[in-house]
Design a protein that fits this description.
Length: 51
C-alpha cells in the first residue's frame, strides 16, 4: 500500500501518516525512495492498538 492508500484506510490525512509513521510504529518499509506497507502488516498493527 502507498502512503495515500494507508491514509485513506486509516481515515487520516496523508500529512499525519508522514509525520507519525515512525513514532506510532506503522509498519512501512522503504522501497527505493518510497514507503510501502503490506495490508496484512497494517491490519496486524491495527489489531495491536488500544481500542
Amino acid at each position: 500500500m502507498t502512503i495515500d492508500e494507508v491514509a485513506a484506510y486509516l481515515a487520516k490525512p496523508k500529512s499525519w501518516v508522514y509525520a507519525n509513521w515512525r513514532t506510532h510504529g506503522i509498519p512501512f518499509k522503504r522501497v527505493g525512495n518510497a514507503l510501502r506497507c503490506r495490508m496484512g502488516d497494517l491490519n496486524e498493527w491495527l489489531d495491536q492498538q488500544a481500542p
